[in-house]
Task: inverse folding
């Protein structure tokens, strides 16, 4: 994964190459800074696979085992319950869609805050470099 400082130090051609690897569309139409942010967004939305982390016992749901050794038998659904079943299914689908949208919004928000913190770091680094440069060249100050 690249950070904002590293991306800003690269040439536009290198950034375009990275963007193509991340499957960003219309790479040639972006300016350098826009491309940097597109790369950061793409990285935040599609992080590289990591080693699985151990689960917390609090977040883990317990599964119920059916009583006895026999698996639970499925009850046939009466024909009058088909519309109720369909409405339950559609509400489940709607809930899943809401969760997906919520996850996407969380990822975007996370990418935005990461970008902002990297921007702050870069500004602080530039300010520090400016101070050092002014200390080294006191005659060149205007």
Result:
């Amino acid at each position: 994964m690249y950070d904002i400082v590293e991306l800003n130090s690269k040439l536009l051609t290198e950034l375009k190459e990275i963007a193509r690897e991340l499957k960003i569309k219309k790479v040639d139409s972006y300016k350098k800074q826009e491309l940097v942010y597109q790369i950061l967004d793409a990285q935040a939305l599609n992080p590289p696979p990591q080693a699985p982390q151990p689960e917390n016992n609090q977040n883990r749901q317990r599964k119920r085992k059916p009583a006895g050794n026999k698996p639970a038998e499925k009850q046939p659904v009466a024909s009058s319950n088909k519309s109720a079943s369909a409405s339950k299914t559609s509400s489940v689908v709607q809930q899943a869609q809401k969760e997906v949208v919520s996850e996407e919004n969380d990822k975007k928000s996370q990418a935005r805050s990461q970008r902002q913190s990297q921007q702050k770091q870069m500004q602080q680094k530039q300010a520090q470099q400016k101070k050092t440069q002014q200390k080294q060249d006191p005659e060149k100050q205007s």
